[in-house]
Amino acid sequence: MPSLRPALVIGAAGALVLAGGLTTAVHGVGTTPTDVAREYLAALSAGHVSKALALTAHSATVDRTLLTTDLPPADRITKATLGRVTRKDRTATAAISYDVDGSAQTTTLRLSKHGDTWLVDNGLSSIVIDGAATDVASVAVNGTKVKVSAGSTALPAVPGLYDAKMPPTFAFTAKEQKAPVTGDPGALHFDLTATAAGEKEAAAAVLRALKACLAKAPQVLENPCGTDTTVFVDKSEFRNTGFRWTLLKAPKLHVFASAGTFEVDATAPGKAQISVYAVDLKHRYLPGRITIPTPLTLDGLVTVTFTGRVAKVTF
């Protein structure tokens, strides 16, 4: 009995023609590396990201966050040119050039034959996003929601121009960023600007944390809670217990934004006092509680991170 499978004929421009006249587009089957390189550049020039991806060798599990939506005209490559194509058995290279964001780019496509199909092996690049506020869960890249973790992420992307927008938070704002993706990864870095409310709350949070820490009466004579003091008591003469720290005057604080957090230092010392129960080991004085005043400042930088409006202080 004759076979019922339709005959397959490769038509012009890589179309797959089935018996009976049904036609479907097929990229790479029976085509040359020159055809595939040309189609790849045409897809990028038209902003057809999915088509460019189909012409590119990639993992079935590739992150498609930025690989399903067409690029708008202003973000596409222009002036694409295919130069010399060199083929050797099942591999080939193609010299190409194009403009992106007004800048001329030249690179070499590497192609190879996967079964009967030629594909571009380096058709996917990537984009790296960093510098977003640490409590931001996602940013918008070319209008697409992109998840970030600790202010950063990296995603596969085809050549073109990409912009990223970070939603403002209680503590930070950031300007829209743009960067080209070529054969080299693109980099979108947010330069954060601290809000007045964020700076004010960061300073207030440090003082609250300092007061709360001192109120727990840490059992140390000097430099409690990440501070620097000038308490001097001869431990060979006195045995001290029952420490009680009190902040009398807050140090003057300087707050500045740093890599998605706030850093806080002291520009002028405050005042504190420590009350201890002292036993004179040489028996010159009766045991009793003594109070010692001391200047108090921060010992280095204090870090403040925000989750929404909630500040976390790390001495």
Characterization of the model:
There is one protein chain. The protein is mainly beta and 315 residues long. The protein is built from 3 helices and 24 strands. The chain has helices spanning 33-45, 49-54, 196-215, and strands at 8-10, 15-18, 23-25, 78-88, 91-100, 103-114, 117-120, 125-130, 138-141, 144-147, 153-157, 160-165, 172-174, 177-181, 186-189, 192-194, 227-229, 238-249, 252-258, 261-268, 270-280, 288-298, 302-307, 310-314. The strands form 7 sheets. Strands 4-5-6-7 form a 4-stranded antiparallel sheet, with helices on one face. A 4-stranded antiparallel sheet has the order 10-9-12-14, with no helix packed on it. Strands 17-22-21-18 form a 4-stranded antiparallel sheet.
Task: Put the structure in a nutshell.
With 315 residues, the protein is mainly beta. It has helices spanning 33-45, 49-54, 196-215; strands at residues 8-10, 15-18, 23-25, 78-88, 91-100, 103-114, 117-120, 125-130, 138-141, 144-147, 153-157, 160-165, 172-174, 177-181, 186-189, 192-194, 227-229, 238-249, 252-258, 261-268, 270-280, 288-298, 302-307, 310-314.
Attribute tags:
315 residues, mainly beta, four-stranded antiparallel β-sheet, 3 helices, 24 strands
Specify the structural class.
Answer: mainly beta
Gap from first CA to last CA: 84 Å
How would you sum up the major sheet? 4 strands, antiparallel
The percent range for helix content is 10-25%
What ranges have pLDDT less than 50 throughout 5 or more consecutive residues?
1-30
CA gyration radius, whole angstroms: 33 Å
- The helix count comes to 3
Strand order of the largest sheet: 4-5-6-7
Extended strand count? 24
Q: Averaging pLDDT over every residue, what do you get?
A: 89
Query: What string, H for helix and E for strand, traces the elements in order?
Result: EEEHHEEEEEEEEEEEEEHEEEEEEEE
* Strand proportion: over 45%
What coarse outline follows from CA principal-axis ratios? elongated
